[in-house]
Every structure is written in C-alpha cells, then in structure tokens.
Amino acid sequence: MEIVDIVKKHAPITGEQIAEMLNLTRPTIRSDLSVLVMLDYIDAKPKVGYFLGKRAISENENKIRLLDMKVGDVHSVPVVVRETTTIHDAVVTLFLENVGHLIVTDEEGRLAGIVSRKDLLKVTLGNASASTMPVSFIMTRRANVITVSPEDTVLEAARIIITHQIDSLPVVVPAPSGGEGEWNVVGRISKTNIIKMLLETLAEE
C-alpha cells in the first residue's frame, strides 16, 4: 500500500521514481508493481508512468464519503419514555424494543435524561417496590448525558461511543423554547447504525 500512496500523491510517476522514494531498486519492486496493476490498484501508461487504478479511486471515494457522512443521514428513531414512566413500563419497553438505553423526555418532549439496562437492573434486583417508581428517580440527568447533533459526523459519533464505552447516543436539536441546554430528541445513533452504514458502503464497491 506504500506504493499506492506514493502513486496517489505523485502520479504520473515512473517505476524508477517510486523505487527511489522507497530506497529500493526498480527490479526489487517490479513484481509488486505488476501485482498492483493486475489488481487494478494502479495503472500504467508507456512513457507516462503509473497512476491510480479504478479500485484505488473507488476506495478513496468511499473513504471520503464515510468521513463526510453526517449523523442525520444514518440515525434511527429514538426509543423514548417520559419522566413519569414507571420502572416496570420502562423495563417492558427496553426489552420490546431490544435496546440498551431509553431516552427520557419531559412533557414538552425535551431531553431530560437517559436510563440504561444496567440502571434498571440495579434498582429492580431485590426491590419489589421499585417497579412503581418513575424512571426520573434513577435516570442519568440531562447535564450528564452525552449527545450529538444531526450535523456531527458519524466518525465523531463513533469516537464518542468508543471513548465512553456506550452503546448509543441521543441525537438532539435546540428546543423551540430556546433555553440554554434545552434539547429536543430527533433520533439515536448506535453501534448498529454505524456498522450497517459501513457494510452498505462496502457492498456498493
């Protein structure tokens, strides 16, 4: 791939020039050049030199497309409960929707917090009365919830998910009320969304 990178940056470029940049002799890289031409990563024209082949161009375009992809292009419908939802109903929703987190909103539909499978498990184990409690008692409150906007890149969302070791992120926009830190939930982006996007992009090659 070093050869492909050199061709990408300096095309058209001769085999001798490629070898010189790699501190090698032309015969040493002859077989590598032949394989790359055969695989269509690079192409060659007599008396002109080497330049990128169709496969390398396609992969480069896909890479650019992936880097530019926005959260708003791939996020899914949020799984939302109200602050007043009981823990029992929240547990039912969690398993019916097969998600790891529930997004909690207030009566105006603004982000209030988030409750995870772990939160619900901890409060219900050995606590028979917990099922009637509202989720607002155990949720992570808005100020501590990590969010992304539809205009953030999918790459940035993936970095946040990996860094904080979480399954998904609420996708939010400023609430019409205009209050500082008030957000309306428009979606959720998860590891599944990101993996699906990558697979679809690879399938297009």
Automatic annotation (TrEMBL):
<dbReference type="InterPro" id="IPR036388">
    <property type="entry name" value="WH-like_DNA-bd_sf"/>
</dbReference>
<keyword id="KW-0129">CBS domain</keyword>
<protein>
    <submittedName>
        <fullName>Transcriptional regulator</fullName>
    </submittedName>
</protein>
<dbReference type="InterPro" id="IPR046342">
    <property type="entry name" value="CBS_dom_sf"/>
</dbReference>
<dbReference type="InterPro" id="IPR051257">
    <property type="entry name" value="Diverse_CBS-Domain"/>
</dbReference>
<dbReference type="InterPro" id="IPR000644">
    <property type="entry name" value="CBS_dom"/>
</dbReference>
<dbReference type="Pfam" id="PF08279">
    <property type="entry name" value="HTH_11"/>
</dbReference>
<dbReference type="InterPro" id="IPR013196">
    <property type="entry name" value="HTH_11"/>
</dbReference>
<dbReference type="Pfam" id="PF00571">
    <property type="entry name" value="CBS"/>
</dbReference>
<dbReference type="InterPro" id="IPR036390">
    <property type="entry name" value="WH_DNA-bd_sf"/>
</dbReference>
<feature type="domain" description="CBS">
    <location>
        <begin position="139"/>
        <end position="204"/>
    </location>
</feature>
<feature type="domain" description="CBS">
    <location>
        <begin position="74"/>
        <end position="131"/>
    </location>
</feature>
